[in-house]
UniProtKB/TrEMBL annotation:
InterPro entries: EF-hand-dom_pair, EF_Hand_1_Ca_BS, EF_hand_dom, Recoverin. The gene is Efcab1. This is EFCB1 protein. Residues 66-101, 102-137, 159-194 form the EF-hand domain. Gene3D superfamilies: EF-hand (1.10.238.10). The keyword Repeat applies. CDD domains: EFh (cd00051).
Length: 206
């Protein structure tokens, strides 16, 4: 919905305080982009936000993110209200972490992306799911040919050793086959390359 100049100023001021990593001009630009994205979205949200499809298309076009599982999980981390709609607050505050977050903020964000069921741990099954999807990325409506299927099966069989190596790197101290945020944080602070160990969920430096 159209917003008055006063309403826009109040919104921008509020988001500049809450998002922290953007200045007022940047926030205003992001709010304008949000309005453009809302116009492209389905009407079910009555102008309050935009849907998963628009979100995925935007991240794909802007940042080259293509992994379906990762994109769905990124959407879920932005959609804090869990209503299938990205609001202007979720949009700006989410991008603040995605683009300019501190290491602490990015660790929490990446962990949330990888924690597929939201139980506070990254389980063996979740690791396998994320690693499998990073091996084979293709349109959802196409079935891989038998040769590719066989290759994926072979790699997944070999992944048991990969899994144990990752657990070693991430220091699963109690050997319960799942990682807490504390395990993840400790490992990433020691080796920052482990931040995206289960799949690319942050834009590259470009």
């Amino acid at each position: 919905a159209a917003m008055s100049k006063k309403g826009l100023k109040l919104l921008v001021d509020s988001l500049t305080r809450s998002a922290k990593h953007f200045n007022k001009n940047e926030v205003e630009c992001l709010v304008n982009l949000f309005d453009t994205l809302v116009a492209r979205s389905s009407s079910q949200f009555a102008g309050a936000g935009f849907d998963r499809t628009v979100f995925r298309d935007t991240l794909h076009n802007a940042f080259g993110m293509t992994d379906d599982v990762v994109l769905d999980r990124v959407f879920s981390t932005f959609d804090r209200g869990n209503n299938g709609c990205i609001t202007v607050v979720e949009w700006v505050e989410g991008l603040a972490v995605l683009l300019r977050g501190t290491l602490e903020e990015k660790m929490k964000y990446c962990f949330a992306v990888y924690d597929l069921n939201g139980d506070g741990y990254i389980s063996r099954e979740e690791m396998f799911q994320m690693l499998k999807n990073s091996l084979l990325i293709q349109p959802a409506d196409e079935e891989p040919d038998e040769g590719v299927k066989d290759l994926v099966d072979l790699v997944l069989k070999k992944m048991a050793s990969t899994y144990l190596f990752i657990l070693f790197l991430l220091q699963d101290y109690d050997h319960d086959g799942k990682l807490s945020f504390a395990d993840f944080e400790k490992a990433v602070r020691e080796e920052k390359l482990l931040l995206e160990v289960f799949g690319p969920c942050l834009p590259d430096i470009k």
